[in-house]
Write a structure and sequence with these properties.
The protein is of the alpha+beta class. Helix content is about 30%, strand content about 15%. Among the domains are: about 180 residues, Structural Genomics Hypothetical 15.5 Kd Protein In mrcA-pckA Intergenic Region, Chain A (Roll); about 35 residues, no CATH class; about 40 residues.
């Protein structure tokens, strides 16, 4: 019985969630998976997300570092970055001098079996806001299979958007394997060709390597042009690349000829003078540009007529407000005048009479006492 070649066997990968941030080994969260060698790093990301029970879609990237041991976080941060496997093409807004490739086009064995990256540590960052960092280590090789498989798990699920039970047990592992099987049937039944590993502008490789790539299917409804590297990613015509989603073909935009006649504008786009209520109010300053003194017609009235009518309405309202204010002032003045002249109510008059009578009675009593 002949044994399978080493390259066709699966990788045994151990992924640990922030191993240096846990106080004890009992608190560590570790997942061990068996993955085929011909899957992409994007498919590995999907398997890790299912294994750790991450919920939701967030950005991610893999980083191969020139480090064989993880002793301290400073050592990890200072370790040189050899390669980055990005979720999308960051060459337009991300240029740190580190070679980078598309994760959905890069095969595992093209990186893990490369002498330049073999034995190096791989960091996996998921969710750039929360920054959940993982370390991925190649533990060995095993028999080949068509899909990914969770071999073992340790530790509680991460607290961020956690679902399921708090303890990772056999039932959880069976549930994860069922989801991995579904993902395999949907995405990994027809794996991409390992030779198709396009290297993006600013990364490794050269234009001659790009010309050797053939037109092949890399995933569902995703194609790569054989001459994309020489035509689409040169520094001179980089702006000619058509940025389109990953569900369509990645083909360079055809440059327009200099003597080519402009395309005729459809009649539906040409602005026609509207009539009646279909016309909208012009923007500020548009009436000044109108050569006609009356301006454009808006139904039965022109623009200037509408403005003059609105001005008259506004002036009438202002006059009404002024009249109301004058009436209020007159009322206040009348009240003040009434208090000064001594217009009093019946109660005040009765009080005055009572005071006068008391004063007169007091004077009479005083005269009697004197007598």
């Amino acid at each position: 019985m002949t044994s399978l070649p080493e390259q066709s066997k699966n990788y045994i990968l151990e992924a640990a969630l922030d191993p240096l941030n846990f106080k004890t080994k009992k608190d560590q969260v570790i997942r061990t998976l068996s993955v085929p060698a011909n899957i992409t790093f994007h498919q590995l990301h999907a398997g890790l997300r299912l294994a750790f029970k991450w919920n939701g879609e967030h950005a991610y990237h893999f980083t191969v570092r020139n480090c064989t041991e993880w002793r301290t976080m400073t050592q990890v941060s200072k370790a040189k970055e050899l390669l980055q496997l990005c979720q999308i093409d960051h060459r337009r807004d991300y240029n740190c001098g580190v070679p980078h490739r598309r994760a959905d086009y890069t095969i595992l064995e093209s990186v893990l079996d490369d002498p330049l990256y073999a034995g190096k540590k791989i960091s996996y960052l998921w969710d750039f806001c929360e920054r959940w960092e993982h370390t991925v280590t190649v533990m060995g090789r095993t028999e080949a299979s068509t899909g990914m498989r969770l071999l073992s798990g340790k530790g509680k699920p991460p607290p961020h958007q956690r679902r399921g039970v708090n303890v990772f047990n056999q039932t959880d592992m069976d549930g994860v394997n069922k989801k991995l099987d579904r993902y395999t049937l949907k995405h990994c039944v027809h794996p991409p060709n390992p030779s198709v590993d396009p290297i993006y502008f600013g990364g490794l490789g050269s234009d001659e390597d790009g010309n050797n790539y053939t037109q092949q299917t890399v995933g569902s409804n995703v194609e790569i042009a054989g001459n994309w590297h020489s035509q689409g990613l040169n520094a001179n015509n980089e702006d000619q690349l058509l940025q389109i989603p990953s569900s369509t073909s990645f083909l360079p935009r055809q440059p327009q000829e200099q003597n080519q006649a402009p395309r005729p504008v459809p009649q539906s786009i040409i602005l026609q003078p509207a009539t009646g209520n279909q016309l909208k109010r012009p923007r500020a300053g548009e009436a000044e540009k109108v050569a006609d003194s009356e301006g454009p017609r808006y139904g039965k009235e022109s623009y200037q007529e509408i403005q003059s009518r609105k001005k008259k309405v506004w002036e009438e309202k202002e006059k009404e407000k002024e009249e109301e204010e004058e009436l209020k002032k007159k009322k206040k003045k009348k009240k003040k005048k009434g208090l000064i002249t001594g217009d009093e109510t019946g109660e005040k008059q009765s009080k005055k009479k009572h005071k006068k009578e008391s004063e007169e009675g007091g004077e009479e009593d005083a005269k009697r006492d004197i007598e």
